[in-house]
Amino acid sequence: MDLTQATAENMEYMIEAIKTKLRMASGAAMQASAFPLEKYEDLQDLYEMVLSKEHLSISEVEAVASELGKLRK
After folding, report:
1. Residue 69: which residues within 8 A CB-CB, separation 6 or more?
2. Tens of pLDDT along 19-72?
3. d(Cα 31, Cα 57) in Å, to the nearest integer?
């Protein structure tokens, strides 16, 4: 998948990957349509950081969830 292109499909892919990695219980509430395409680069940075880590601490999960909340419309 070519994540260099800012598309809704790529945003959905990255959000799903982040939700899976974080094992978010409230993942159903985190819809890709809630994120504006203008925030694509910020979401991509967050995606790359999350997937680069083998394990995330509780505080890291909370920080990522907070950042996702800030990126939403």
Report:
1. none
2. 888 876 566 567 888 899 999 999 999 999 999 999 889 999 889 989 988 998
3. 24
Residue type, 42: D
For 13-58, the DSSP string reads HHHHHHHHHHT-TTGGG--GGGS-GGGHHHHHHHHHHHHH-S---H
The residue assigned the tokens 């892919």 is 13
56 Cβ contact list (under 8 Å, min separation 6): 21, 22, 50, 64
Distance in angstroms (rounded) separating the CA atoms of residues 73 and 69: 9
